[in-house]
C-alpha cells in the first residue's frame, strides 16, 4: 500500500479501539489518583501520567490498566511505601513526589533504596540489582568447588563464582592504558577496557555541599558525595542489635541482622598501615583496608578557609574547606546576613569580603530546622538541636501513657529551654542520673523528699534531689542534715535491733537537734554531714566492740574506755565522747571520761620560696585553668579554708576605680591587680556547664559545681588544686604562718574570717617559731665569735 493510499477500515477500527482503551485506562487511573490525593486535580493527574507512562510508548494502555487494577485493589498504594507494585507506579510516585504531593516513594524491599528501576519482583516486593544478586540461589563453583557462591557466569564445566570469573583468561583483554592483559573493570567511550590499576573513579561536584569527590550516588538530581549521602539519603531502619532507628551500615542478609553505623565495625582484615587484623570499614586511595584508628590518625588535612589551620576538612562551603571546629562554631552561631537580611549561618563571602549566607552566592545548603524554622544548630534529620532536645526530654520524663505529669512540667521546661542544647542532649544520653530520673517518672509516684529518702544513698540520688529543688518541684531544705536519717536507715539494715534502738535516738534527739539549732543561727560548715555520720559510725563500731567482749552499757567502766582509745590507729575513736555524753545524760552509763585529742602543731608548712613560686605561676601561667589560678592564688596569699573559697560569689568582690578588694571577714582585703583580673573573669564568664532556669533565684558562684545551683564541693576543689601541683594543706599552712608572723590575732581574724581563738593559736605558733629561730641565730653568732677569738 502506498503512503498516499487511504487507511484500511480494519486499521482505523483497531486504532480507535486502542485509543478508547487508553482513554478508559487513563480515566480510571485519574479517578483513583484524585481519590487518594485530594490536592491533586484531574489535569495535574493526567500530566503526571504522561510523564510516568508516555502515550507514544508501546503498551502504555496495558501499563495504565495494570496500574488502575493495582490502585483499585490497594487504595493506599501511594502512601504505604510498598514496592509490591507495577513498575509504572515507581515512576509515578517519583513524579508526584517531585511535584510536591504527599506520597511515599517505594524502595527496595531489602535495603530500602528508593529507585525507579526496581526490576526484580519477589514475594516481599521489588528488589534493586544488588539485593537481587545477593538473594539468588547459591551454588557450588565448578572451578574452586566452594559451596554457597553466587553464580556470575556459566561455563561448559558449570557455574563459576565472581573470583573465578575475574581470574578467567577468557575475560582478559589488553588494557587501554598500560597494555597488560587483565580483566577490565570499566570501558571508555571507544569501547576499550581499563584494568583496576588504571581506572580512576570519576569525580563529581556534590549538589549539596559543593565538594568535588567520588560520588556515592548519581541520579537525575545530580551527584552526592558520601558524606551528604549518609546525611540525607541513606535509608533509616531499626537496627537489629540496638533497636534504634538509625542509618543502616550493613543490610540484613544470610541470617544476619541490619546493623547501624554504631553497631557495625566492618569486616576483619589486615590493616594496610599498622598490619594488624582489625575491623576495617575504610579503604585508602589504592583500595587497601584501613582500620578506624589508622584512618583517624593518617587523615590528610588541608588549610581551613576560616582559621587557616591544617586539619581534616569536615565540609566544603563557598569560602572553601572548613575544619570541624569552625564548622561547629559557624552553624551554632547564626547571624543576620548583610545582603538578604535573613538569620542564617554565614558560610560564604561576597566580593567585598563580607560574610554572607549560602543562598546569596548560589549555594543551596539549607540549615533551617524543618520542625520549628529556626536557623543554625542542626542536629539530625533536618531538625535543630532545640527540637531534638525537647523531644528527648519528653521521652525521658513521660509516663506509660506518653505524657509528662504536671509536677514534672517545670523540670521538663527547664531542660528543654537549656541555652546550650548540645551539652544537654549529651547529658540526657550519657549521664547515669537520667536513668534514675526516668525510673521515677515511669512509676508515676508523687515526688517528695520522703520518696527519695527511701532510695539507697548515692551520688545520683543527691543530684536528682537537688535538680528537683533547683526547678521548684521540691522545697529546699538543709540537705546536709536532712539526708542523714535516710543514710542511717540503710546503715542499720544489717545491724542488730539493739544497736538500732540506740543509734536512732542518738542521731535524732542529740546530734541532729543540736545541729539544727546551730544551723538556725549561722550557716553550718560544709563538713557538718560528714562529721555527724562519722560520730554515728563510731558509736556503731563501739557497740559492736562491746558485743565482742560481752559488755552492756551499764557495765562500762573507765578502763573499757581506755582500752577502746588505746586500740585506735587514728584519732577517729576519740569521737566516742559524743555518744557517751548522750548515754550519760540518759543515765544509760555512768560518768565516763574520754581524754582530749592531743594538740598538734601545724605540719607540712610550705616555705616562703616555694609559696611565692607557686603564686607567681598562678598569676602568670595561662596554661592553667582560670578557676585553678584564682583559687590557688587566694589560698597561697590569704590561707582561706577550702570551704570558704568554694562559697565565694561576685558579691564578695568590690571593684573600684583603681583597686579591687575581696571580702573574706569583716574587712575587705586589697587584691593584687592580676588576681583581681582573674576574679573579674570568673565573675563575668558564662557558665561552662548547661545551666537550668531556677524557680527561685540563687547566688552565682565563682566556682560552680556539677550539681545545679550548688558550688563546687570542698573535696572537688581540693582534688583540682592538688592535680595542678598546689597542695592545699601545705599551701594554706604556709600562708597562715606568714600572716600570723606579721599581724596581731584580732586583725588576722578580721581579715581572714577565722575564729579569734584559731587566730590566737596561729599567732602564738608563729611567734614561738620566730623566737626559736632568733635564739638559734644568736647561738650561731656566739659560736662564731668564740671561734674568731681562738
TrEMBL record:
Highest taxon of source: Bacteria
SUPFAM superfamilies registered for this protein in UniProt: DNA breaking-rejoining enzymes
Protein name (Swiss-Prot/TrEMBL): XRE family transcriptional regulator
Organism, as annotated: Streptomyces halobius
Amino acid at each position: 500500500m502506498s503512503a498516499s493510499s487511504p487507511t484500511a477500515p480494519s486499521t482505523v477500527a483497531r486504532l480507535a479501539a486502542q485509543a478508547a482503551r487508553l482513554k478508559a485506562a487513563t480515566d480510571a487511573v485519574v479517578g483513583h489518583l484524585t481519590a487518594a490525593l485530594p490536592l491533586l486535580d484531574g489535569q495535574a493527574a493526567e500530566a503526571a501520567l504522561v510523564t510516568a507512562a508516555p502515550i507514544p510508548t508501546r503498551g502504555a494502555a496495558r501499563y495504565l490498566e495494570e496500574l488502575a487494577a493495582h490502585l483499585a485493589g490497594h487504595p493506599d498504594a501511594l502512601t504505604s511505601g510498598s514496592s509490591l507494585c507495577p513498575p509504572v507506579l515507581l515512576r509515578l510516585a517519583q513524579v508526584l513526589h517531585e511535584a510536591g504531593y504527599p506520597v511515599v516513594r517505594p524502595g527496595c524491599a531489602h535495603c530500602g533504596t528508593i529507585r525507579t528501576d526496581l526490576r526484580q519482583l519477589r514475594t516481599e516486593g521489588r528488589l534493586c540489582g544488588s539485593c537481587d544478586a545477593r538473594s539468588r540461589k547459591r551454588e557450588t563453583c565448578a572451578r574452586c568447588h566452594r559451596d554457597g557462591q553466587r553464580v556470575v557466569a556459566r561455563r561448559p564445566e558449570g557455574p563459576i563464582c565472581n573470583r573465578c570469573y575475574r581470574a578467567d583468561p577468557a575475560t582478559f583483554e589488553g588494557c587501554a592504558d598500560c597494555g597488560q592483559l587483565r580483566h577490565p573493570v570499566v570501558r571508555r567511550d571507544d569501547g576499550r577496557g581499563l584494568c583496576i590499576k588504571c581506572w580512576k573513579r570519576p569525580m563529581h561536584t556534590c549538589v549539596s555541599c559543593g565538594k568535588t569527590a567520588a560520588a556515592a550516588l548519581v541520579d537525575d538530581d545530580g551527584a552526592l558525595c558520601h558524606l551528604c549521602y549518609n546525611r540525607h539519603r541513606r535509608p533509616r531502619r531499626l537496627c537489629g542489635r540496638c533497636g534504634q532507628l538509625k542509618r543502616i551500615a550493613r543490610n540484613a542478609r544470610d541470617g544476619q541482622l541490619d546493623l547501624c553505623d554504631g553497631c557495625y565495625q566492618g569486616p576483619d582484615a589486615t590493616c594496610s598501615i599498622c598490619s594488624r587484623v582489625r575491623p576495617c570499614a575504610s579503604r585508602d586511595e589504592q583500595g587497601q583496608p584501613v582500620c578506624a584508628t589508622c584512618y583517624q590518625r593518617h587523615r590528610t588535612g588541608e588549610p581551613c578557609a576560616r582559621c587557616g589551620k591544617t586539619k581534616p576538612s569536615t565540609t566544603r562551603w563557598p569560602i572553601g574547606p572548613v575544619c570541624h571546629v569552625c564548622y561547629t562554631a559557624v552553624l551554632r552561631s547564626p547571624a543576620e546576613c548583610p545582603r538578604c537580611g535573613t538569620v542564617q549561618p554565614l558560610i560564604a563571602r561576597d566580593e567585598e569580603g563580607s560574610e554572607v549566607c549560602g543562598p546569596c552566592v548560589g549555594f543551596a545548603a539549607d540549615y533551617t530546622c524543618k520542625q520549628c524554622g529556626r536557623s543554625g544548630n542542626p542536629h539530625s534529620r533536618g531538625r535543630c538541636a532545640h527540637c531534638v532536645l525537647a523531644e528527648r526530654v519528653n521521652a525521658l520524663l513521660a509516663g506509660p501513657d506518653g505524657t509528662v505529669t504536671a509536677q514534672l512540667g517545670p523540670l521538663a521546661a527547664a531542660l528543654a529551654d537549656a541555652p546550650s542544647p548540645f551539652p544537654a542532649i549529651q547529658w540526657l544520653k550519657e549521664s547515669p542520673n537520667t536513668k534514675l530520673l526516668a525510673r521515677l517518672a515511669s512509676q508515676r509516684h508523687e515526688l517528695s523528699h520522703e520518696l527519695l529518702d527511701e532510695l539507697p544513698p548515692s551520688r545520683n540520688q543527691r543530684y536528682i534531689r537537688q535538680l528537683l529543688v533547683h526547678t521548684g518541684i521540691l522545697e529546699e531544705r538543709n540537705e546536709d542534715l536532712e539526708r542523714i536519717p535516710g543514710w542511717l536507715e540503710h546503715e542499720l539494715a544489717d545491724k542488730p535491733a539493739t544497736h538500732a534502738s540506740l543509734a536512732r535516738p542518738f542521731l535524732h534527739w542529740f546530734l541532729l537537734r543540736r545541729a539544727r539549732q546551730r544551723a538556725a543561727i549561722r550557716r553550718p560548715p560544709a563538713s557538718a554531714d560528714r562529721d555527724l555520720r562519722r560520730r554515728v559510725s563510731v558509736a556503731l563500731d563501739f557497740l559492736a566492740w562491746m558485743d565482742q567482749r560481752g559488755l552492756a552499757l551499764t557495765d562500762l567502766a573507765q578502763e573499757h574506755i581506755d582500752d577502746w582509745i588505746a586500740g585506735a590507729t587514728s584519732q577517729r575513736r576519740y569521737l566516742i565522747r559524743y555518744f557517751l555524753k548522750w548515754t550519760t545524760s540518759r543515765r544509760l552509763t555512768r560518768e565516763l571520761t574520754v581524754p582530749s585529742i592531743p594538740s598538734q602543731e601545724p605540719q607540712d608548712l610550705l616555705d616562703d620560696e616555694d609559696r611565692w613560686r607557686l603564686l607567681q605561676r598562678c598569676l602568670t601561667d595561662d596554661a592553667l585553668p582560670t578557676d585553678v589560678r584564682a583559687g590557688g592564688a587566694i589560698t597561697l596569699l590569704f590561707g582561706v579554708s577550702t570551704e570558704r573559697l568554694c562559697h565565694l560569689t561576685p558579691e564578695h568582690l568590690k571593684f573600684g576605680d583603681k583597686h579591687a578588694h575581696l571580702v573574706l571577714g569583716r574587712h575587705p582585703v586589697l587584691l593584687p591587680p592580676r588576681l583581681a583580673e582573674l576574679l573579674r573573669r570568673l565573675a563575668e564568664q558564662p557558665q561552662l556547664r548547661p545551666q537550668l532556669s531556677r524557680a527561685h533565684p540563687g547566688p552565682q558562684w565563682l566556682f560552680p559545681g556539677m550539681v545545679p545551683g550548688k558550688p563546687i564541693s570542698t573535696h572537688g576543689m581540693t582534688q583540682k588544686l592538688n592535680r595542678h601541683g598546689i597542695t592545699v594543706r601545705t599551701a594554706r599552712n604556709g600562708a597562715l604562718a606568714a600572716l600570723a608572723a606579721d599581724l596581731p590575732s584580732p586583725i588576722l581574724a578580721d581579715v581572714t574570717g577565722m575564729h579569734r581563738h584559731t587566730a590566737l593559736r596561729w599567732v602564738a605558733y608563729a611567734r614561738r617559731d620566730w623566737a626559736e629561730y632568733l635564739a638559734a641565730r644568736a647561738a650561731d653568732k656566739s659560736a662564731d665569735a668564740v671561734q674568731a677569738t681562738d
